[in-house]
Structure formats: C-alpha cells, structure tokens
Automatic annotation (TrEMBL):
<feature type="domain" description="Fatty acid hydroxylase">
    <location>
        <begin position="117"/>
        <end position="248"/>
    </location>
</feature>
<keyword id="KW-0560">Oxidoreductase</keyword>
<feature type="transmembrane region" description="Helical">
    <location>
        <begin position="364"/>
        <end position="382"/>
    </location>
</feature>
<keyword id="KW-0443">Lipid metabolism</keyword>
<comment type="function">
    <text>Glyceryl-ether monooxygenase that cleaves the O-alkyl bond of ether lipids. Ether lipids are essential components of brain membranes.</text>
</comment>
<feature type="transmembrane region" description="Helical">
    <location>
        <begin position="334"/>
        <end position="352"/>
    </location>
</feature>
<feature type="transmembrane region" description="Helical">
    <location>
        <begin position="411"/>
        <end position="432"/>
    </location>
</feature>
<protein>
    <recommendedName>
        <fullName>Alkylglycerol monooxygenase</fullName>
        <ecNumber>1.14.16.5</ecNumber>
    </recommendedName>
</protein>
<feature type="transmembrane region" description="Helical">
    <location>
        <begin position="113"/>
        <end position="130"/>
    </location>
</feature>
<feature type="domain" description="Alkylglycerol monooxygenase C-terminal">
    <location>
        <begin position="334"/>
        <end position="421"/>
    </location>
</feature>
<dbReference type="Pfam" id="PF04116">
    <property type="entry name" value="FA_hydroxylase"/>
</dbReference>
<dbReference type="InterPro" id="IPR056853">
    <property type="entry name" value="AGMP_C"/>
</dbReference>
<dbReference type="InterPro" id="IPR051689">
    <property type="entry name" value="Sterol_desaturase/TMEM195"/>
</dbReference>
<feature type="transmembrane region" description="Helical">
    <location>
        <begin position="42"/>
        <end position="61"/>
    </location>
</feature>
<keyword id="KW-0472">Membrane</keyword>
<dbReference type="GO" id="GO:0008610">
    <property type="term" value="P:lipid biosynthetic process"/>
</dbReference>
<dbReference type="GO" id="GO:0005506">
    <property type="term" value="F:iron ion binding"/>
</dbReference>
Length: 446
C-alpha cells in the first residue's frame, strides 16, 4: 500500500491558523499532497476556544448563551458535513485540479509570496460570491440555511455546516484555477473556512479600525440576524471590503435576533440538514406555469409571484423583541448522558479524521457508519423522539462490539474498561425503556 504522509501543524500554527495569521513562508507547498489537512487538525483548537468562550461567559453577566441541545446539534452538523470527504475526494479540489490541468492560462510560481497573497484575495472574493448566491438562489439556500438555523450565536454556531453545500461552492473558485497552482488554493480554501470560526461570538463587541477591513464578530452577527435590517447583508469571509464594494454591507445597530425568519424548531440532525429540499420540491410543484416554477428555484427564498427577485422585506414575520429560542425542557441527567456520549463520539470522530490515511477502507466505512448512526441516535434523544430508546440501545451494543474488535481505541486501557461498563449499563437502561414503551403501547391498544 502506498504510504501517505500527513503533515501535522504545530501548536503555534494550530492557534494562528484560526485567525488567518499564517505566513506565506510556512504555508507554501509544491504539491497538493504536501498541504496539511488544516481543517481536520483544527478540532482540538475549536474545542479549546469553545471552552474559553464558555468560561468567559460564566465570568460575564451577559455572557454567551449556550444550550446543550443547540450546541450538540451545531457540532453534529459540522461532523456530518466532513464525512463525505472520507469517502470521496473534496469536489472543490478535484474540480480545481481538473481545470488547472486542462485549461490554465498562466503558471504562477507556487513559492512566491505574490501568488500566496493573490490566492488569499481570490479565494476570499470567490467565497463572497458563493455566499451571496447561497442566499440569493433558493436551491443553494436549501443547503446554506443549515448554517443559519441556530437561534443562538456562539462559537459552536460556526460549526453548524451543511453537508450539501460542498457540492456547489467549488464553481466559484474555478477562475483562480486558470493561474494559481492547486497546492496554493488548497491552503487558502482551508484558511478561509477556519477564519470564520472565531467571528461567531457575542463576547467581542467592536474592534475599532479593524472593522473597516476585516469581517468581525459584529459584522457577522448582522449576517446571522433575522431582523429586517440584517436580511441579505454581510456575506464576507475574511475581508469585509467585498460587502462594502458590492453594496451588501450594513453595520450592527439594533439588537440582533438570531436564526431563520421561520425557525425550524428541531434538533434532529437529518431534519436540520435536509428539511428544505422537500419544501423546495413542494413549492416547485405547487407553482403555476414554468416561469413561476423556475423562479422558485432560481430566485431568492423569500420570492413569491409578483414580488422582486429577493422577495419583499415587509413579508418576513415581525419581531416583538420577546422571541425565545426553541428549548423544550429535558432532564439534567439526560443532558449529562447525551453530553458524555457526544464527547466519546468526538474522540472516535477525531481519530477517524486523523488516521483516515492509515486505516483500511473497511475501518473507514465502518467508523463513518458508526458516527452517522451516533449522530442520528443522539439527535433523536435531544429531539425527544418516541423511537429514540431502541436506536440508542442498538448503538450501545455496537460501541461495545467496535471496542472489542479494536475499531475504537481509547487512550488508556482503564478508559476502555470504564467506557465499556458505562455503555453496557446504558444499553440495559435503554432496553428497559424500550420494553416499557412497548408494554405501555400494548396496554393503550387494548
Ligand atoms: Zn450565510
Ligand atoms: Zn456564520
């Protein structure tokens, strides 16, 4: 088997890459194969900053509002969105390499700082236009709405990513492939995504002169708002200059109410990721005439017949200032259970991403299926679905099997033992819940 080296980032780079503070010197590579998997290696740094935000939030009276149900849903979406890349090569990169190989007009040197900066600007502008189209074309919004579906705004919201978005974003970077080598692009497309993590916070209020040039927490809070003044504004990735240039910039003013204009009120991950597609399909068939049908797909999500391309701002639900995020009551014990199970899952997921090159195909497939099943089952539990008990019972049995056969390897043997005991007790608990539900159901039928 061919051996593939995975370049690891140092701790200093791990922190700096989250703020786009890497230098051309340390992040220029001759080939795509040498480019570190920055995003896959970012998990510990994401967790570190999330913990810091939680601690600072506790210290401040008006700190960030974090709820376990919303938090886990956002992280689940982030994990789910990275899974396709374990099985297929990123479409963004494959399409880019194809255009570079067949249609390039110029071959800029990969080791020049000029090329590096040109790619930085090019990727950031490509992202601006992709993001703007993702809001202005209904069929792209079907994917992107996932990122806006949280009614909270904290670092975990940044990770709430769409699974299907990666199948359309690649188009917007292709002009760069006419001259910028794929290895330079592969670096910047990752840095651009990573930069957008830290701006999802309410803790940073205003950054003075930096607000002129950079996309900041304040600018991006506006982007996540459902107040009328926030709709279709501030699409920037790293630099806010694109919004200022192309007329979509607006500064933060009234208190922002976060989320979609019509909140989805669910934490079940498949619904969060895919619910817009059947809705789009239904609207398409209900629209009268081919022109209206095409408009449903290619105009803004708020468009209705007779309205401007992006719909009418007056049509969105009015805000009262009393809006409360969807947060049905659930017991502290269940919250603790889901959180512990989720932390165990993150460990498996992180190992899968880091070791994907050295794992066998069977292991990658098996562990990917396990991660998906876990996200589903924990989503059912958070959403308090009726069939959550049987799925969780099955999942607990699977964890023990995967650990016994060596597919899941905890850090130390003692931990393996503790996890097995915890999961076995959980399996018994869920079996009892399941039997209980069945007998109650039968009693009701009689
Ligand atoms: Zn957006
Ligand atoms: Zn965002």
């Amino acid at each position: 088997m061919e051996r593939v080296e995975v370049t690891s980032v140092t701790h200093s780079q791990g922190v700096r890459m989250l703020f786009s503070l890497m230098t051309p010197n340390e992040s220029s590579f001759a080939t795509v194969r040498e480019v570190p998997t920055y995003v896959n290696q970012a998990t510990p740094y994401f967790i570190g900053l999330i913990l810091l935000e939680i601690v600072l939030g506790w210290l401040k009276a008006d700190g960030p509002h974090i709820k376990i149900n919303d938090f886990i849903t956002s992280l689940s979406a982030g994990m789910m969105s990275r899974l396709p890349q374990l099985v297929i090569r990123s479409l963004e990169l494959s399409a880019y390499i194809y255009v570079w190989n067949n249609f390039r007009l110029l071959e800029l040197p990969w080791d020049s700082a000029w090329t590096w900066w040109l790619a930085f600007l090019g990727v950031d502008m490509g992202y601006y236009w992709f993001h703007r189209f993702a809001h202005e074309l209904n069929f792209l919004w079907a994917a992107h709405q996932v990122h806006h579906s949280s009614e909270y705004y904290n670092l975990s919201t940044a990770l709430r990513q769409s699974v299907t978005q990666q199948f359309s974003s690649w188009v917007f970077y292709l002009p760069l492939a006419l001259m910028v080598p794929p290895s330079v692009f592969a670096v910047h497309v990752q840095f651009n995504l990573l930069y957008q993590f830290w701006i999802h916070t309410e803790l940073v209020k205003n950054l003075g002169p930096l607000e002129w040039i950079l996309n900041t927490p304040s600018h991006h809070r506006v982007h996540h708002g459902r107040n009328p003044y926030c709709i279709d504004k501030n699409y920037a990735g790293i630099l806010i200059i694109w919004d200022r240039m192309f007329g979509t910039f607006t500064p933060e003013s009234d208190k922002v109410v976060y989320g979609l204009t019509h909140p989805i009120s669910t934490f079940e991950i498949w619904t969060v990721e895919f619910l817009y597609y059947p809705y789009l399909w239904q609207r398409f068939w209900e629209a009268e005439g081919i022109s209206n049908k095409l408009s449903i797909i290619f105009k803004g999500p708020g468009w209705t017949p007779g309205k401007p391309r992006l719909g009418d701002i007056a049509d969105i639900p009015q805000l009262t200032g009393e809006e409360k995020p969807h947060d049905p009551a659930w017991s502290p014990a269940m919250q603790a259970y889901v959180l512990i199970q989720f932390m165990l899952l993150i460990d498996v997921y992180n190992n899968l991403l880091m070791d994907q090159m050295i794992l066998s195909e069977l292991s990658v497939l098996l562990l990917t299926a396990y991660v998906l099943l876990s996200l589903t089952s924990l989503g059912f539990l958070i959403d308090q679905r009726a069939n959550a008990a049987e799925l969780e019972m099955l999942r607990c049995v699977l964890i023990v099997a995967l650990q016994r056969f060596g597919y899941i390897k905890p850090l130390v043997p003692l931990l393996a033992f503790l996890i097995e005991v915890f999961v076995l007790i959980s399996a018994v608990y869920w079996s009892l819940q399941f039997v209980n539900q069945r007998t109650n159901g039968m009693k009701k039928q009689n």
